Amino acid sequence: MFRRMALDFDVGKALKLVRERIQNATQKRSKSLPQIEPRLVAVTKTKPVSMVLEAYNLGQRYFGENYVNELYEKSTSEKILDQCPDIRWHFIGHLQKSNVKKLLKVPNLHMIETLDNEKLAQMLNSSWEKMQKDVRLKIMVQINTSAEESKHGCEPSQSTHLVSYVQEHCPSLDFVGLMTIGAFDRDPALGTNPDFLTMRKCRDEVCQALGLKIEEVELSMGMSNDFESAIEEGSTNVRIGSTIFGARSFQKDSSSSNSEQSSISDKEQTKFKDAAASEHLLKTSLQSNS
Ligand SMILES: *Cc1c(COP(=O)(O)O)cnc(C)c1O
């Protein structure tokens, strides 16, 4: 019992701290950028329903998941349906066409952040249309700003094309903004992450080509390791997991470990394995101490 408690992560404290850090970073943002309060998406992948409930009870409303099966299971669990009527799910993983139908059945699906090709746009559009909802489906276009092959997303040079495709051919989709994962393990001492600058450039191009205002196009960028700098560079949507819920151990339960692919690169998976390994070490040392 004691051991378990010693390892338990204080979600309340972590969430409060993250919110404060978000506010401070928002104040440091250049005045030339749209002063939009960033939305905090709490990323619960690999974490249990109990942690979703805990954060929800502390006022958190936006939650992110990157596996369709895991999202479907959590969002349809009795406890979430009962106790979280106001929850808003963001899908932030790589989406395969075979999973679209299941994803769209997720109750309280708020946004899909990872649209990256026309075929997928077509499919989301027609599937959503058939469901006859009274709102359009919010989507973001994912951009592969770091040009790493392991990452999904359309090329920055293709972003205007894809956004205009959505605007012209997908009346059931509501284009909200652009999303990137960005390079991992970038040394902040090297200055601003070029991925964030690429995102701003993409947004400028999209806005100019399609006659949109930059206030109308959100930027989803920034995770645990870089969300403050992302906000200073104009992020309006940060996706934060491990800083709120603790390090992930990368062993996923069998129900959600099938053929789906994560949007996270192998390199980051290694990082997570390292985190899991150090968690294991900690556990072992706590055990040998008792
Ligand atoms: C897991 C994940 C996150 C959150 O990562 P942390 O480093 O734990 O904050 C954000 N975005 C995407 C797309 C993810 O898959």
TrEMBL record:
Positions carrying N6-(pyridoxal phosphate)lysine: 45
NCBIfam families: YggS family pyridoxal phosphate-dependent enzyme (TIGR00044)
Native source species: Potamilus streckersoni
Domain Alanine racemase N-terminal: 26-248
Similarity remark: Belongs to the pyridoxal phosphate-binding protein YggS/PROSC family.
Name of the protein this chain belongs to: Pyridoxal phosphate homeostasis protein
Compositional bias (Low complexity): 252-264
Source species, domain of life: Eukaryota
A Pfam family it matches: Ala_racemase_N
GO molecular function: pyridoxal phosphate binding
Protein's job: Pyridoxal 5'-phosphate (PLP)-binding protein, which may be involved in intracellular homeostatic regulation of pyridoxal 5'-phosphate (PLP), the active form of vitamin B6.
Disordered: annotated span: 250-271
The entry's keywords: Pyridoxal phosphate
Entry annotated with the keyword S-adenosyl-L-methionine: no
Signal sequence annotation: none
InterPro entries, sorted: Ala_racemase_N, PLP-binding_barrel, PyrdxlP_homeostasis
